[in-house]
Amino acid sequence: MSTALDKLDSQSRDALHDGTDPGSAAFLNTSASSLYYPVAYEVAMAKMDRCPICNVAVKPENLIRHLNDIHPRHPDKPGLLEELKEEPGRIPQKRAGRPIRIRRWQIAVVAVIVLGGLGAVYLPPLLSGTPAFPCIGQEGVGLVYHWHTDLTISSGAASVSIPAGIGISTFCLEPLHTHEANGRIHIETQTARLYSIGDFFRVWGKSFGNPTAMHVNGTAVTPNPSLTLYDLETIHLQYDSFS
Asked: Is-contact 212 128, C-beta < 8 A?
């Protein structure tokens, strides 16, 4: 089987051996396929550009990248890049992205999430009812005063437990509330006003009813739901039956 060099005419072979042909170096770099298919090779090379620095054949749209990658520090590179960027077709155009398609089920999922979040915030207060008094913004902040009154209740001969958490919910802290099940009423207000024992029963959701006796700091007084709550006082209520 004859080689590519065997197919060369004598003139090209002589030029190759003696080096007198100016294109002999480029000729040595050609592949065998270019020798077998000279027309196709010439057509392909006609579509290529030559790097102005190293004379390597490069596709026109890749010449700028070639200069940046192969000759990053060459002094002529900045000027060449400016000239090439002004030529049409040098910078490949970006393919337009596919348009975003929003489907109905996706809209439905987002709507469910949004409505669920709003329901979690606004529905519990509606279900729990309107608080007896406006909620205070934050415990211990911006208060006019913070008092404590200790309350005990007897139903017949038995003591009544006053639970913790009266006036406290996830979304509201009322001015009258309890933190522990020891009967201590916390009075925290951001408005300049006083509260009564009847106000506490209202927050508790209980009826003041008709106690048979009432003592304030050990002194008997007439049972009255309008009795004002003050700091460091003790109040005892006696009922025949309390529920």
From this structure: no
Let me know: does 203 contact 220? Beta carbons within 8 Å.
no
* Secondary-structure class of domain 145-239 per CATH: alpha beta
236 forms bridges with which residues in the sheet?
Answer: 152, 215
- Residues 160 and 153: beta-carbon distance below 8 Å: yes
Give the dihedral of Cα atoms 15, 17, 18, 20; nearest 10 deg.
30
DSSP at 224 = -
Write the DSSP symbol of residue 41: H
Distance in angstroms (rounded) separating the CA atoms of residues 144 and 190: 5
Give the model confidence (pLDDT) of 170-198 as tens digits.
Answer: 889 999 999 999 999 999 999 999 999 99
- Can you give the pTM of this predicted structure? 0.49
Specify the length of the chain in residues: 243
Please give the structure tokens belonging to residue 9.
């005419």
Q: Are 201 and 207 in contact (CB under 8 A)?
A: yes
Cα separation, 66 vs 64, whole angstroms: 5
Three-state SS at 189: strand
The number of angstroms, rounded, from the C-alpha of 144 to the middle of its chain's C-alpha atoms is: 38
Do 153 and 239 touch, CB atoms closer than 8 A? yes
Cβ proximity of 237 and 151 under 8 Å: yes
Model pLDDT for residues 138-154, shown as the tens digit of each residue: 777 889 999 999 999 99
Comparing CA positions, the residue from 115, 49, 40 lying closest to residue 80 is: 49
Dist CA 194 CA 48 (whole Å): 93
> How far is it, in rounded angstroms, from Cα 88 to Cα 74?
24
